[in-house]
Amino acid sequence: MTAPGKRKYAYRDRPLARALEPLAYLTPFLAAIAVFTLYPVINVVLMSFKEGYQMLTGRFTQVGMENYAYVLRDRYFINALQNTAIYVAVVVPLSTILSILIANLLNRKVKGMALFQTAYFMPMVTAVTAAGLAWKFMFSRDFGVINQILSWFGAGKINWLQAPEWSLWALIIYGVWSILPFTIILMLSGLQNIDETHYIAARVDGAKSARIFFRITVPMLAPTIGLVLTINTISTSKVFNEIFPLFNGRPGPSYNLYTVVYYIYDQFYIKWKLGRAAAAAMILFLIIFVITMLQQVIQRKWSH
Amino acid sequence: MKVEMRGLTKHFGSTVAVEDFTVTLEDGHLTSILGPSGCGKSTVLNLLAGIVPATRGEILFDGEAVTGLPPELRGIGLVFQNYSLYPHMTVLGNISFPLEIKKVPRAQREESARAMAALVHVDNLLHRKPRELSGGQQQRVAIARALVKKPNLLLLDEPLSNLDARLRLEMREEIRRIQQETRVTTVFVTHDQEEAMSISDRIVLMNAGRLQQEDEPQRLYHEPRNQFVADFLGTPPINHLPGHMKGGAFILEGGQARFPFSRGAGAPEGRPLILAVRAESAHVPDPDEGALFSASVESIYAMGKEVLGYFDIGGHSFRCYLDGDMLPRPGTEIPIAFRERGTFLFDGETGERLL
Amino acid sequence: MTAKESAGLCAEIARANRLRALLARGATYFFLALGAVVMLFPFFWMFTSAFKTPQEVATFPPRWLPAAPRFENFATVFEKAPFGIYFLNSALITAASVAGTGLVTILAAFAFSRLKFPGRNLLFTLLLSLMMIPFEMLVITNYETIAAWRLIDNRLSLFIPFLGSIFYTYILRNFFLSIPDGLYWSARVDGAGNWTYLWKVMVPIARPALTTIVLLNAITSWNSFMWPMLVINSTANRTLPLGLYVFMTEGGINFELLMAASTVVVLPIILLFLIARKQIVGGVARGGMKG
Known about the structure:
heterotrimer; A: mainly alpha; MetI-like fold; 2 domains; two-stranded antiparallel ribbon; globular; B: alpha+beta; five-stranded antiparallel β-sheet; 8 helices; 24% helix
């Protein structure tokens, strides 16, 4: 027996300290999220309805829809929407189809696959400015290797980066190249999740490769394709960084290549119209949100 | 260390895991907590370890309340069913981890760990990682880790159930040996009655969250307090003959058979009863002894030194051991008598023992 | 059909099958190689052009390889712009981001996986829903916040806004959840509190998941362009991608120099990729790279 007064298991329960322990672990994280994610979300919504920014006081004087009205009437914003839409509409399907084909090749069990994977995935880790500069050089009208290769097929010199009608296509080619690795990785992991027995069963039934591809691989890959479409639609509709190396930081050779995010940047950083920038950001978010929802609905219907 | 549990109760939401559990574990004893799965035995262990907080009641270590104490301050050792070794540490690292936490200097803690490894016979595996060990070796390491800080209480949660049959026997003896060498108060949770019977100083039998009986293994077997205890212990399971007493005779349910049973005279007449008889307590009487009744042979299983017979007594099946040289054919009628030892009378409704 | 005929037919089918397999493998290699050439071509062009002379980059048809490798290009690049400082800044900020975000993430993931508190899962679900907000939407306010904290043109502003990453917390929390409860309670009984358990048991075990978030974060941080462009003004604070961009806009179009500078920017990350390709690809496959 323990002598009276001398406790072997001295312990003072502090319920408050116990209750606050999780908070101690969470505080840095929650603080960072609150300041740099949650507050900005709320603020951008509010800001998009505020007008009459006073440079001197740093305050807005009115509330209304004026920012939205301005942005939606601004021909640069319309131009940005158009460019972004074309960019998304070309890059997303193209990269999806290419990635399915490439992932299908990369999934075969042949020697040297690690080497090929390295080759295909490398653009993913490359800084957008550096890769963009290489493309800029390759797109060069007078000294570019792309025009040289095209000349083998009898094409004349294309002014990729200075001609307004070609600049969007230069951006698209670069865009497909840079988004492909990520897309292939997702497709490849989708392929690897398909149970091998499906293939064996089909082969035993005597199905040909093309038939297996369209009747088994593609349908089984449908959830992955849906995921890729969603993720890539979101990321391509935010196209922005790629413009800087290709066009020296201007939105295309003759201000013809605004994208939605570039427009936001322009309003916010160059013109200091915070309300309009916020309104444009809200519109972008709404578009992304609607597209995502649509894709989810379609995919759910498709999979049943 | 003496461990007392007083009125210990644990509810998970509306589910009762442990209810009003009062038991004292004597210092230096190895006590098994035995019961079917879901009976609350692991919850009792977790309450002792401080892993789950008690809803009501208290736990005392050497007379001192530790009910609200977090596990790290209880000074106990714990071995889980799956051993839960730290996969990133070597055997030596695992065993010395509790001392590392106590900031014991490296040389000293490695010395203690080596001594402990020698005790459990893993001193040749010190630099292996857990995944390179067999189940039995992992088990030994887990025990060494639990013992290295000289705990005042060692808790073992179904430590043998992940091992194969042969290893289980071996580790059972090892645990007993280690416990007797260290004299640490030990709680051993198991659902295996044979394990509990062979290893323990005392057995705590639980069912549905409640204590059924706490006793020495043999007394538990021979003096069950209620029908559950009698049913749970023993292979083959104890025989049940439902019926009631009338005029000093036991009337078997269904009215098919009756036999004189003067010992049951104390039971109120007409009340539903269960006459429970262990298979080894029924026998074929000598001619001068006199049979209680006759039973018809259904099947016979000869297992070397003994023969187990399945009988029909008035529509109730009944198992009983026969002499090795006796192999009656199915369908024959043979006389049966009960020995006093191993024959119990339980209340048919409450399960309380009447005799 | 006689036995001899059928044996002959079998051999023929086997030969045809072998031939088909050979052709299939040949086609696989051909198309894979073709694609790989296209994907690698910009790198080939960047690396070779970095060694060309000014004349060699300004001819048509372009020269595929330099006549003699011209290492001076690199020297010139470092002379014309402080790429050494850019490099140091990038390394510092990447290290700070990896360490800072890693720490914040570990603590949060621990609370969300191991500790119990009311509303834990609801809070986590809400955080996950925040993940779909594009950073572009937050940029305006974050710029203002950084400005209000007087951190414009300060390298601290390059990683502080990214300390709380929901995505990395999500990856790590999932890994922590896969660590069995028994290990936690063993450690508690062994005398460890939550803090000790986290650092002595959980973090060492979670090394694969931690490696993933460290690699993804390092790549993102090293390559980051938009945010540094907004908040960094002075030469001394620039990171490599930003420095490269400024080098282009200010230094004119000397492609051999631009390619040499680009090589300096991409090489460290490509080396990292070659070393840790499996973890990086695995990490990307698991969650999809953000941004």
